[in-house]
Amino acid sequence: MKTLIVYYSLEGNTEYAAKQIADATGAELLCLEPVKAYPTGKVSKFIWGGKSAVMSETPELKPYAFDAAAYGRIIFGFPVWASTIAPPLRTFIRSNDLKGKRIAAFACQTASGAEKAFVKLKDELGIDALEAELTLLDPKIKPDPANEEKLRAFCDSLK
Ligand SMILES: Cc1cc2nc3c(=O)[nH]c(=O)nc-3n(C[C@H](O)[C@H](O)[C@H](O)COP(=O)(O)O)c2cc1C
Question: Which residue among 26, 59, 106, 151 is least packed, with the fewest CB closer than 10 Å?
């Protein structure tokens, strides 16, 4: 069964984790990119990204190739924004038929909110449970053995 990691990353933490998971599991990667990039400025990212998350926006994405029939499992990866999923994931989920897929997810955050974000993700997908969940604290900018250990356990649980 092939696995695809579908992720969005504004500042590289989610991408860092996505690549680690791909290396450990052999999964393929699909990076979602909004047509209109979110700003990365210290304040502007919270204003624009925060508003977009709170408003449950569905930002238009740059074209991507996704053959749903080719994958039995999708792993979603996202930064927690205002205790919910980063909006590009919503656009992807609403644009594709993921029925019958196994779904796992990982979230990157600075402090808290991932639990609520996983609930929102499940609501968006119309499912009761994820196959596996992983929460990491800024894994790229704050290297920590705890993150590496959690990453390993998550990957092992998917084997
Ligand atoms: C708009 C915005 C909202 C955020 N909201 C939260 C939050 O609710 N809780 C939290 O712990 N971190 C929050 N963060 C921090 C990011 O989730 C965290 O730094 C994450 O690791 C960034 O991943 P990335 O580098 O892949 O973008 C927020 C960041 C942004 C830009």
Answer: 26
